[in-house]
Amino acid sequence: METGEPSDLASAQRRLVTHAAALGFQVVHDAAPPVSVLDEPGTPLTVMEAAAALGTARFCESQPNVVLRLGPSRSIARTLVLNCHLDTVAGAVPVSHTGGTVTGRGSVDAKGQAVALIAGVREALARRPDFPDRTTVLLQLVGGEEGGAMGWYGTRLLVRAGFTGRINVVAEPTRLATLDRTTSTMTARIRVDGEGATDDAAAAGHNATLALAVVADALVRRIGLEAANSLCLGGLHTGTMHNRVYGKGVLLANLAYGSKEEAAWLRATTEDAFGSALTVLERDFAHIPIATRTARDARQICQLEWTKQGLPVLRGRDPAMERVLTAAGIDRHDDDAGLAPFTCDAMWFNDSSGYTVVLGAGDLEEDGAHTDHEQVRLTDLASYVDQISALLTQFDRMPRG
């Protein structure tokens, strides 16, 4: 999503398929997302733009999804899903293994989790070799989770195809306790498309830096005061030179929500703040010579577009399956304490009939996911292996029906 180059996702999938096959897993789905998926309503704009830049067919072909199955096809009641994304954010992080800690891009988010899932199944088979006679495990190795893809052409398609279970475990770093709720995000992109100028005639141009700064100020004042944890005021870019007035620029704002009601409020408030910012430009800057043209033309050169919106959130409880997890020694993050919900592929299981949890080793922040210091401790992965093994064992012990 972020490099502009074809993904090598299939290579990572092949390595994991080899190890899983040794345990008895069979590939039941190995396919690139159809190009038609990018024409569906709601496709994130960032996905469409990345696909257009690379070529839609090439983009899709390089990001296949793989599903493996251990045991025969069974009803959802006797099926458990393990889901893990293998794509990462951009940026090379040197790989090393020192003192029981592995560093490298994807070590904690989320290739390390995928390795632990397979090791957990291996451990469960060692403890209970015949569990595939009663319980089916689906292992999903997907792409399209990072970079604003939001699982649109990955997990979303697999859920829609019916690859779901009574318990669906989505592997993300959660400090080895479950989250059964997620947030989702919507992204506003504010553009200024005006004419630039040189420093010798600064007043002759539109000043995108000024316009976007006023918009950023309005967003922080409106949303930052009323819903501080919902707003991530992201990249602002106009240019880097000191002796130019840049007439074009972009500001990004990412907005997290935990319900449809929150999403509706955030969208309305963002659009209102944008409108208020244009009013401020027109009213407060028209009399300042270097800003007069920007103020006068604000509504012609500034626009707000939603690059991503309308995504679901995961929110559900299931006392019966929670008891299975508890019996496996797996804790749950409380609604009012512990790890706060975040956005991930689990949201697409929201409408399935099973119970979905996010569960994994490590911590997104402490282990540097998406940063130049990404790492994972092998002791954390080992604990995750034990959890997956115990969960499979407890799930297998459930009475049929």
Task: Report on this structure.
The chain has helices at 9-21, 45-54, 56-61, 111-127, 155-160, 208-226, 260-284, 292-296, 298-301, 319-327, 378-396, and strands spanning 26-31, 65-70, 79-85, 96-98, 101-103, 136-142, 167-170, 177-178, 184-193, 197-198, 231-237, 244-245, 248-257, 302-308, 331-332, 355-358, 375-377. With 401 residues, the protein is of the alpha/beta class. It has a 6-stranded mixed beta sheet with strand order 1-2-6-3-7-16, covered by helices on one side. A 4-stranded antiparallel beta sheet has the order 11-13-9-14. A 3-stranded antiparallel beta sheet has the order 4-5-17. Helix 4 (111-127) crosses helix 11 (378-396) and helix 6 crosses helix 7 (260-284). The mean pLDDT is 96.
SSE pattern? HEHHEEEEHEHEEEEHEEEHHHEHEEEH
- The radius of gyration over CA amounts to 24 Å
Oligomeric description of these chains: single chain
Number of separate strands: 17
* Integer count of domains: 2
Overall average residue pLDDT? 96
According to CATH, the fold-level topology of the largest domain is Aminopeptidase
CATH superfamily of the largest domain: Zn peptidases
Calculate the terminal CA-CA distance, rounded to whole Å.
43 Å
Residue share in β-strands = 15-25%
Q: Approximately how much helix is present in the residues?
A: 25-40%
Spatial ordering of strands, largest sheet: 1-2-6-3-7-16
| Biggest β-sheet strands, sense, barrel | 6 strands, mixed
